Amino acid sequence: MSRLLGLLGLGMRGRLVVLGVDAVRKELQTGTVRCVVLAADASRRAVDKVVTLAAGRRVPLVAGPDAAAIGARLGRPPVMVVGVRDRGLAEGILRAAPERDVTED
After folding, report:
1. Domain covering 2-104 in this structure, CATH number
2. Is residue 60 within 8 Å of 17, Cβ to Cβ?
3. Residue 38 per-residue DSSP state
4. Contact criterion met (CB below 8 Å) for 60 and 36
5. Would you list the domain boundaries of the chain?
6. Is the pTM above the cut of 0.85?
7. DSSP helix, strand, coil percent of the chain (3-state; round to 5)
8. 34-64 burial string, b = 16+ CB within 10 Å, else e?
9. Residues 68-102, buried b or exposed e (16+ Cβ, 10 A)?
């Protein structure tokens, strides 16, 4: 998970990621998100709002660490959902963590 968090940190510095349920949903609707990282402890509401839309758009979902760890790495309060805009960064994240099985929640 440390590699995943490191890549998210790079994406944050390069402004290649969006944070939070509403921002990620908006970017999914416009087709600019290449993958979505979900915190392990994301709320059911957050998961429901993002997973359905991402699945419909065929955007890969990645299981991340808990929201506090993601937020701490990005210099923010706990972050449940991160959308990755950059294709290369998304590919690196997908290699760093397995896709999330959305049916297990």
Report:
1. 3.30.1330.30
2. no
3. E
4. yes
5. 2-104
6. yes
7. 55, 15, 30
8. bbbbbbeebeeebbebbbebbeeeebbbbbb
9. ebbbebbeeeebbbbbbbbeebbebbbebbeebee
* Pairing of β 81-84 and β 17-19: antiparallel
CB 39 within 8 A of CB 67: yes
pLDDT per position as a tens digit, 80-95: 999 999 999 999 999 9
Query: pLDDT digits over 5-53, tens only?
Result: 999 999 999 999 999 999 999 999 999 999 999 999 999 998 899 999 9
Residue tagged 């896709």 (tokens): 99
Residue 17 pairs in a beta bridge with 84
CB 65 within 8 A of CB 1: yes
Contact at 8 Å (CB) between 2 and 65? no
